[in-house]
């Protein structure tokens, strides 16, 4: 497949690995913020191929993992209402809330539908005028514009039976929080290529400047990731700290202005809790007041939510890069993909699931 | 006075020409008999079936018998490259012949939803007829039930198959030995991606077609090369990864795959990339994976490649003594990772 196979070329990867080996003179800690990067690194075993001085730390950039348990509980409660068709992307269905998941709600009789695009949920609302269609809108800046566009499309069509249960989060405030944390070890960042496709990289420039860390916007194929790491390492070795762009075929400094306009029209920035991490200032998006009719949280008052998190799950430390997944006492024992204690074991992009699925052999 | 013409009167006769399945088609009465005589017998008719006994009585020489059964509930009924009909024949024929057996007879049971268009049933039966002829098997007995609308999804089919296992052939998932080579008969993940990309509500289109096919001819070609096939399965639900994990667990051996050697069509790879799905876990309906001793691997592979269903056959890995029960894979970049048993259905990811 053109524009994909080139970036999976073992010969190119081998050349980049050689350059990395020649560049590195001392230990460095680099965080890939995005779960898509974590998944690709583990699936291809890239971490095994890097020199021992390069330590990769896995960041909180998995939308499934950081969605607060309260949002899952709210989703389950809304899905259980008889008038509701609850639509969601596939990987949210298995995420455990306090007592149930959307899959469990489905088997108990809730009308839960897996969709591949928020516009499919709008179509469901059009086709089922007597039902209420609620779409679970989670994710980073990558998915937020599409979800916002679906809301605007529903309004344009005059659909009154469509709403979003929105739980969107932003990447730069998370990087700021991690870098401000006293326990921070991370010296360089791979920034998420798809988030930056939407947002550009201007927001990352003050972070690089203030915290003196190199940040490289990076794509998701193995060759992209190795090239991004090489760019970070070259800056680290040279004592530089600027934002660079490895993912030039998709990302510009300004980003996608049309998508940014949709974001501004539909959402406003608020403080927000991240599962496993806590409340991060100005890190979430909520639906604006004048669009309240399309906000499922306002439309369906759910008052009975009592959040209960597993006390054994250390995903907070994992998401902040302070603990490797296999360093958690529950990893692979009480906590497996069959019986996850936390969301990081559920999503394919969660660091714990990636370790469990691809890398257990080195611990066997 | 108004004249009454007695010929204007008529007694209301029951309607016999239906366009859709009625509950009465499953009643065992006249409509049931008509369904059998007008729809099933013209398609599948043979000396044994035509007797319409409660059971098929067939001749069978001595030896070992392979027996299997499988239910088919695919949605949509018709998909690029096949439909529930050929799937129901090929799936059961393949399960029989993965033991090395020559498939001989099939039984077919149908659960029909009230309201199913008879034209749909007809189309499915035509395709079953064609698939059974291609595989060289006869449908010798069957059953039909009709359930209320909403009690099943259009049409479910269960097929049962029997076959004869040749002398000297002993194929089992428990028979893999370190040193064995693993051979896959062609590209993986075609069927699952054809279904996924044609499912209603998914606004995603591709040219991927199902690989549904009966593999008994290919198995014959393999057994001609050697009778010493250790293990063989068709990796349907759960895909190649699941079958190999079953091998590793049953034989208590390790498996080491070579990622670069596993054949995947570019369009399937592309569709999997877009949806965030790993082709190793996607269903196949016309592929097999076998373990054979290293000494005969080249000969078996050559025999497979001469058969139309084995043209893209490839050696994809080997059986090792290390890490018993686990499947590992050498990635294209030279690292090693686990290929685990899937937890549930693969779920397309958010972004």
How would you summarize the topology of this molecule?
The complex is a heterodimer of chains A (364) and B (351).
Chain A: H1 10-23, E1 28-34, H2 35-44, H3 46-49, E2 54-61, H4 63-66, H5 69-79, E3 84-88, H6 102-107, E4 111-114, H7 118-127, E5 132-139, H8 144-157, E6 162-169, H9 171-180, E7 188-192, H10 193-199, H11 204-211, E8 215-218, H12 222-238, E9 243-245, H13 257-266, E10 267-274, E11 278-287, H14 296-299, H15 315-319, H16 351-359
Parallel strand pairs in A: 1-2, 1-7, 3-4, 3-5, 5-6, 7-8, 8-9
Antiparallel strand pairs in A: 6-11, 10-11
Helix pairs in contact in A: 1-12, 2-16, 7-8, 8-13
Chain B: H1 30-44, H2 47-50, E1 64-72, E2 78-79, E3 82-83, H3 84-97, E4 102-113, H4 118-135, E5 138-147, E6 155-165, E7 181-184, H5 190-198, H6 216-225, E8 231-233, H7 239-251, E9 254-258, H8 266-275, E10 289-292, H9 294-306, E11 314-320, E12 327-330, E13 336-338
Parallel strand pairs in B: 4-5, 9-12
Antiparallel strand pairs in B: 1-6, 2-3, 4-6, 7-10, 7-11, 8-10, 9-11, 12-13
Helix pairs in contact in B: 1-4, 3-4, 6-9
